[in-house]
Design goal:
Blueprint: H1 5-13, E1 31-37, H2 41-52, E2 59-62, E3 78-79, H3 89-100, H4 102-106, E4 117-121, H5 124-139, E5 145-148, H6 149-155, E6 170-174, E7 178-179, H7 182-195, E8 199-201, E9 206-212, E10 215-221, E11 224-233, H8 239-244, E12 252-264, E13 272-275, E14 280-284, E15 289-293, E16 296-300, H9 308-321, E17 330-341, E18 347-350, E19 356-360, H10 370-383, H11 397-400
Parallel strand pairs: 1-2, 1-11, 2-8, 4-13, 11-19
Antiparallel strand pairs: 3-7, 4-6, 5-6, 9-10, 10-11, 12-15, 12-16, 12-17, 13-14, 14-15, 18-19
The chain binds flavin-adenine dinucleotide.
Amino acid sequence: MRYSGFQVIKQGLTGNKGWKPVWREPEPKKSYDIIIVGGGGHGLATAHYLAKKYGQKNIAVLEKGWIGSGNIGRNTTIVRSNYMLEGNQPFYEHSLKLWESLEQDLNYNAMMSQRGILNLAHSDSQRDAMARRGNAMLLSGADAKLMTADEVRKMVPFLNFDNARFPITAGLLQPRAGTARHDAVAWGFARSADQHGVDIIQNCEVTGFQMKDGKCIGVETSKGKIKAKKVAVCVAGSSSRVMEKAGMRLPIESHVLQAFVSEGLKLTIPGIVTFGAGHLYISQSDKGGLVFGGDLDGYNTYAQRGNMPTLEHVVEDMMGLMPFLGRARLLRMWGGVMDMSMDGSPIIDKTHIDGLYFNGGWCYGGFKATPASGDAYAHLIATDTPHPTATKFRFDRFLRGGMIDEKGSGAQPNLH
Ligand SMILES: Cc1cc2nc3c(=O)[nH]c(=O)nc-3n(C[C@H](O)[C@H](O)[C@H](O)COP(=O)(O)OP(=O)(O)OC[C@H]3O[C@@H](n4cnc5c(N)ncnc54)[C@H](O)[C@@H]3O)c2cc1C
């Protein structure tokens, strides 16, 4: 069913009994043209673009849990394209452009709100680095504004500007950045993929790959064997565990990252603010809760929960930057498993096994990439060539030493 103002009024007046389930619950068929392993944001977006843009009709998404149970429903919802390096900037800018028309594309309210991201600088050298990043963004068509300390003060007067250790010297603003409601993004992509005929199969864990003559010809799952002409893995924090079943060892480690939400407060923070002298990013949800996060917990794990010392560490950063928040109460916290690549940048590539494709290594920055990752992965699967904005996200960069180690995207998890 299409959503519209008319439907909202009609359903409201008739007891909201006419809404239909947002996607079907089909049983898996014996074979598909394309199987996507992992029903997170990226897997669902890939299915959406494969069906809508590349006209593929026979696709299944296999999800071991439920839609939205992974990182797509666990992140701090920040969407931005303030990347500097050549391999990254066009891809993330492409993603931000897709975000700007995503709700129309999906006919789904994902609560995309372009409220801007402000990265704070606390020394002259940090301000110079931000000027360089901002210039690189402008040169490749993104938006950026270097702000003086006075301009920052006008915009967010409540920050601790005169902290003796970390005074605020400048800020880099990307006005088009913002937030989107994370689980609505998963539901919107799932609904659209389903409408285009994609089978979304929940509670279906992929436990192995079927191989014949060096080619991947299907998967083994908790619901039986399913054949496929192409198998595309997209399992974020479980990347190394799943690809191990195909005999591949990845340049990826799994780490836990936590998110925190305070009680609802009056409008306090206009956009997203990041603390440049520690690692803290904070925004305010439409319900008023402060949504914030910081460093990884710092040890390898597949558990979707974190520990108290990291909470203390993140909250200390928050007190350093916004001491007035000391009396706000914390309401909720949770963790998600990050697929940390060794240079902080992702991989969207064919593997050495015919018919097997891989998408992962998103670190703690893959939410903003969701539409472009789906688009680029769909392009790769449909055409067997990399999408023009994702040509550098190849496995062989680790062989050649062609790293894309962008600061702020999670490079070197061992240093967290
Ligand atoms: C606390 C936190 C904060 C974050 N903040 C941000 C942010 O502000 N901005 C940003 O851009 N990014 C952020 N991220 C990162 C972002 O959420 C991830 O990079 C991105 O969601 C990963 O892609 P995905 O949505 O496809 O992953 P997921 O939703 O994790 O999808 C992978 C799916 O694969 C499934 N799966 C695993 N194994 C199997 C199997 N064997 N068979 C079938 N299915 C399987 C999982 O159940 C899961 O549903 C954050 C992450 C966390 C945890």
